[in-house]
Amino acid sequence: MSGKTPEWIRAELIKCGYSQAAWARANGLHPRAVQRCIKHYAPAKGISPKRRESRAIMALLSKSLGIDLLWGDQ
Q1: How far apart (Å, rounded) are the C-alpha atoms in residues 48 and 28?
Q2: Per the structure, how many domains does the chain have?
């Protein structure tokens, strides 16, 4: 199990100067959708997103944070 929990992802966004909602808006996404993806698909949860929107959100987060949140199955 990875140490990348939802709280860790939020903390990394804050280090980059964004709140979770601000990052969502800056990327043209609905803040609630980003919140849901982080909560359900953080690597520590062990669940990979299957739907297009969820995968796109996690891919954007990966790119913004410079880490792989999709375990390389992009």
Answers
A1: 22
A2: 1
Query: What average pLDDT does the chain have?
Result: 91
Please answer whether residues 12 and 20 qualify as being in contact, where contact means their C-beta atoms are separated by less than 8 angstroms. Answer: no
* pLDDT(72) > 80: no
Model confidence, pTM:
0.88
Q: What is the pLDDT of residue 20?
A: 96
Q: Is residue 14 part of a domain?
A: yes
SS (H, E, C) 2-52: CCCCHHHHHHHHHHCCCCHHHHHHHCCCCHHHHHHHHHHHCHHHCCCCCCH
- Give residue 44's domain range: 6-65
What CA–CA distances, in Å, run from 62 to 20, 55, 56, 71? Answer: 14, 10, 10, 10
Contact 46, 1 (CB under 8 A): yes
